[in-house]
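REQUEST
  id: r-88c1
  op: predict_structure
  target: Peptidylprolyl isomerase
  payload:
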Amino acid sequence: MTHLFRFAALLLLAVLAFGSTEAQTLAGVGRSGPARQTVDGIIVKVDNQIVLRSDLDGIYQQQLQQAEGKPLPPDIQCKILQSLTLNKLLLAKAETDSVVVEDSQVNNELNRRMNYFIQQIGSEKKLEEYYNKPLRQLKEELRIQVKEQLVQQKMQDQIAGKVTVTPREVRQFFGKIPKDSLPYYSTEVEVGQIVKLAKPDEKAEQAVLAKMNDLRAQVLAGADFAALAKQYSEDPVSAKDGGNLGFFKRKELVPEYEAASLRLEPGGLSPIVKSQFGYHLIQLIEKKGDSYNTRHILMKPVSGGADVDAASAALLKLRSRIQHDSITFAKAAKDMSEDKESGANGGLLANRRDGSSYIPLDQLDPAIFFTIDTMKVGRISQPLPYRTDDGKDAVRIIWLKSNTPPHQANLKDDYQKIALAALNQKKNKALDEWFLRNRGTVFIEVDPEYAGCKVLDTEQ
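RESPONSE
  id: r-88c1
  status: 200
  body:
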């Protein structure tokens, strides 16, 4: 099995969670309407895990799209099937080894992806119209896929997470690449950000609390909860269903919401509950085992111009400190940015395809592209208002760390990317060795039609 391709395909599902092909992940839940008809069926069994023909075909179609008319290797379907089989082996072993991911992690990742899809397509309504399904149904159909991806990633981390490469190994890896096979990179930039949320002031908080308490009083006086939820709730998914969230298990919803819900009897009404999403009024509908069904009305304090101004003023002071060398941009981002993902990386945004900090211009958020278009390397922008993926008002400053012109790959300019490729190759070897050790510990059956793919081999 070719190591480099196998690692790319192995991580394909996980990469979809973070990459520019993210919308294709959602496409996997199915869009109503005309589609190419194929005969589906099980082509590989790995204990209780299965690979469907549609799984193979779906990734093959993605590869065709990404190839943009260029011919694919003749054995690509076999290589995809090998990687899918390894993914299922990871899931099967995770089950026997009791490797699990927390429901809260699944929910956070699911919400992050749905917010991304909504942002890309424009609105919840447009997303629902495109797939001809309510947002709630789309999330539930995507939930199993997300959970499997996270479990696979956790297994991979356990197998190869501690693998590292030395500078010498990176040089050796680069030296083995034929000169005529070195990639050609378009213009790439390294961009950092420091984010400050525009937090509503006390007046806005109190206004929302007053309204929520009024709604609670109306329900206690006999008003219909569902009707009020449809009219006032700012949760666009559940509001259409009268605030109904459906059944959730323990630890699947934020702690404050869950704690308030579980203290109620069916039909009971909670006090006003604050969470990271805003203020909730909760009514318990039903308890069933360790699951519970609730409906809620959600309202969020609105950030005003003064809140944005306060965030901008704070960032202006921080920008001045960075410019006067009293603190580095990286340290300021780690210590003070309210975007935890980029903050943990010194403020640098990640390339969604390979995880590096070098981002091709055509992959940049348009707002960032037009901000840095006229900036010189090393400069920091003025505070810029924007809206976060989860819909919060915020302000950020943008730092252009580097701007690399088009060039053929070399160790000086592309060490980070080459080191990542070398690391991936070494991780591939660790995964191959794990596959060899564990392929005989589970039941694996391959459809005779695909026997020629030799999915249980590590080399072809």
